[in-house]
Amino acid sequence: MRITAEGLAWSVAGKRILTDVGLDVAPGETVGLIGPNGSGKSTLLRCLAGLRTPTSGSVSYDKEPIRSWSARRIARHVAFVEQAADTDSDLRVADVVGLGRTPFGDRWRGFGARDRAVVAAALARLGLTGLRERPWKALSGGERQRAHIARALAQQPYAILLDEPTNHLDVKHQLELLGLLAATDQTVLVALHDLSLAARYCDRLLLLHDGRLVADGPPADVLTPGLLAEVFEVDAVTGPDALGHFAVTYRGPVAAPPAGPLPSPSTDTPSPEPADSPTPKEI
Ligand SMILES: Nc1ncnc2c1ncn2[C@@H]1O[C@H](COP(=O)(O)OP(=O)(O)OP(=O)(O)O)[C@@H](O)[C@H]1O
Fold this sequence. Notes:
By secondary structure, the protein is α/β, with parallel strands linked by helices.
């Protein structure tokens, strides 16, 4: 499915957050959305997922503007993995992943064999089969993140939007997830902070700066030392790493933050531990 935005703008409280964003993600493409903190990545993804109504401009799926689409119709096309998605804590992992089937359910049919098979496949894809009966609240941050991605896959969407999906994942799971996104036939737009991983796994990068799209192209064309200095304020070199992947290596920030002294610790004598305080246990 093709995702297109034209002249997209979003403002809040009189402040422009996105300005004149135009993008076109082709069917099956894996596109990375990069930009510094506060540049507008989450806001843009929310507009593309139909969760935020643009102040002006339009979002289209396969050239059809989604302005008048219902949330259910959008969810049958696009899955969105938000940065800090919260989920009802009484559910089991399989139930959370099963929420991905909601757009396809109806109260007469219920949750059928096909839904169960799709959920099982999504759990397996994210290495969560062994955790399927685990209460949601007993999961680690990375396991929850993988479960949210499994829920998105269970939605069987034509396109997946992901907002920093690797931020809680260990290295192995980061590589597995990005490999999965790069290999899928679905259209993928993924916000990432790790620029070398973005370069390695994405066909193309979109660079946001202060709510404007300032570069759009193959990773090596977007991640130039000049743009990295201007937009991310880092002094960096780019080129092949030891394995030949295009990578970014940082010398440091362009300008060091002002080196003011931190307040010194209080010179007051600390109060002694109470005599009966328990000895800390080794863990
Ligand atoms: N509802 C809102 N009200 C006020 N300001 C908002 C709102 N939503 C977003 N913003 C502001 O818009 C700007 C862009 O936010 P956004 O979350 O889209 O950035 P981001 O690129 O995803 O950042 P990060 O990398 O830190 O996740 C920020 O300055 C943010 O404070």
